[in-house]
Amino acid sequence: xxxxxxxxxxxxxxxKDPAARSMLEVYLCYPGFHAITIYRFAxxxxxxxxxxxxxxxxxxxxxxTGVEIHxxxxxxxxxxxxxxxxxxxxxxxxxxDDCFLYQGVTLGAGAEAREGEAxxxxxxxxxxxxxxxxxxxxxxxxxxxxxxxxxVASGSIVLKDxxxxxIVVGVPGRIIYKDGKRVDNKNPxxxxxxxxxxxxxxxxxxxNLAKVMSAAHVDKVAPNQGSSEEITGEDSDESDPxxxxxxxxxx
Length: 251
Fold this sequence. Notes:
Layout: H1 4-16, H2 23-29, H3 31-47, H4 51-65, E1 68-69, E2 74-75, E3 80-81, E4 88-89, E5 94-95, E6 100-101, E7 106-108, E8 127-128, E9 133-134, E10 139-141, E11 145-146, E12 151-152, E13 157-158, E14 166-169, E15 174-178, E16 181-182, H5 190-215, H6 228-232, H7 241-246
Parallel strand pairs: 1-4, 2-5, 3-6, 4-7, 5-8, 6-9, 7-10, 8-11, 9-12, 10-13, 12-14
Antiparallel strand pairs: 14-15, 15-16
Helix pairs in contact: 1-3, 3-4
């Protein structure tokens, strides 16, 4: 086994994690480092067709770190798992160099995995190219390719290929930035679209209510209802929070 793979990972953690104070701390206190180190040994055994022993080793790593990496996965250099708890990496996953995963990430099989034994030996899990960062709780499913220098936002579910230099957000994941430029997305987040439709309907109902109240000469308004201008939103901030969410808030 190439021992430089392990030392490189420790050095990368020390460089990228501001909470890491020393190399000794990385070696002793970082479950992500422990998980990837054990994986390196298990992967060697897996390549020697000692499948059961390799799986036992990976299950031991799962018990002590909370990270499950199948020994059949192919992982490149300087791979970092931050915090680690809940990370799952499937058997046919391929990960390039300088990738970074946060806690709760799943690199799992798609719907084809339901066919069971028929898909054994086939590519069922994603391929991450170089310099990919995946936020906490995100899922990347199926035999898809995530290109170089891609950022996947926390909580996203990615089901389709992602080109290089992109930022993906949402459920299902959609590209909102590519090559540093905002993408005019023709397939927005359906969840955000539903929220937007509901907000538009509420605005219409409130406007109609304001007209009825005005026609009935109602001078007093119940607490927290505000004036008719407040109800119709005429004086509200021009930036619609739903639109902000629809375009990927905080990205």
